[in-house]
Amino acid sequence: MSHTGVNAAEEFDAIIVGARCAGSATAIALAGRGLHVLVIDSARFPSDTLSTHLLWPSTMAEIHALGALPAVEEAGAPRLPIAEAILDETGWRTGYSPVSGIDYGMCLRRSHLDDALIRTASSLEADIRQQCRATGLISDDGRVTGIRYTDADDHERAAIAPIVIGADGRKSLVAREVGAKTPLISSRSGRSCYFAYWTDPRDDLRHIASQWRVDGLLGTAFPCDAGQTLCLLQPPVEFDDEFHGRKVTDAYREGVAALPGLARRLEGAEMVSRVRACTGIESYFRRSSGPGWALPGDAGHFKDPVTAQGIRDGYRYGRLLGERLAPILGSRGGPDPGAVDAATAEWAARREQDCVEIYQWTNVLASGSPPSPLEYEVYHRARDHPEYAQILSDIYNRVQAPSSMLPLTALPSLILGALRQPASSTREVVADVRTQVRRIRDDRNERRALVRASAG
Known about the structure:
By secondary structure, the protein is α/β, with parallel strands linked by helices. It has 13 helices and 22 strands. 38% of the residues lie in helices and 21% in strands. Residues 12-333 form the FAD-binding domain.
């Protein structure tokens, strides 16, 4: 981290490192309130990035709140008002509860999605500089006051501001420079992620986002832009060796074939892209605020893609960070550093409180473990009771908390139902109940540990 003595540094109300989901959302919230905002990114947009890019209705509502919904819909991805999930051959299909009047999801390539948000930020006069790479932070007496970066012509430049916002992803330079790279809490995923694009001849299914699970294997089909479908495969990590190097395409196709429902969904379709991979996944919360800095998006908090929550949270908490800071940064007498830091601390605490339960539920789905007797019973109940299926879709949609899926009051009937299933033995059900009770206890302890670590 560099220190004082910055010559010819440009001055801004806020500096944002990273122009994708969280960075563009924060820029829109700040620039839309008249603040002078610098945003730098190493990419040249439109630009793709490694992402599964399913957008829930709550994500579409965030896009709407940012004023970018028309630009996003112009890309031509189909609306997805229906969700379905199938465990072996037991499945449920339902709609979503509306969020801000929006009851459909969407799956849109990041090259289109990010560009739409960046154009929205630019229209509000945010200063977005592409092909610029942050090289270090500037500080004064322990407080971050700016950045050093190389521009598109490889010239060294500097900029200063009352706040530096690191929206620069999991490998965040800002997080590393401020000493926040080590997580407060973390969880290694039991799954890896492989995905490719396919043509989609099934016009009758292009309004449905679908998921299939067999044993520990999970796969999805999300109709997306360009008349194609995004097919995601998440096998347990012990199968990673089968996906190495030249074997990845064959292993991916074999994984699709091992999910009969997914294989049927892709009948007549042709794979039209290479297989992309994300392995060694770790979910975490990092310390996300400090003197003169904040970390929205994946820089501060990341969840396994199995529940597709990252884009929504990047938009939402980027926007909320900008809205919280705008009146302080725009105050007539100039921003008070203590008020800036208090605002970012309150914002970070709110994100932790809002996101920790969905983080823990995501970690359960990301474990790669075979379905348990109680989980089968959840699917049986959702198949037979549409109102319960609605709860499950609304958990993904962030309208309901994961705890609403398995409240303690419903546990006895779920246990009884599991005991009645011929595929489950009493021993397996009892072991599953013990596992669920232990998980509830461990989750409670982890939440307490997060509060302690964050406060520390």
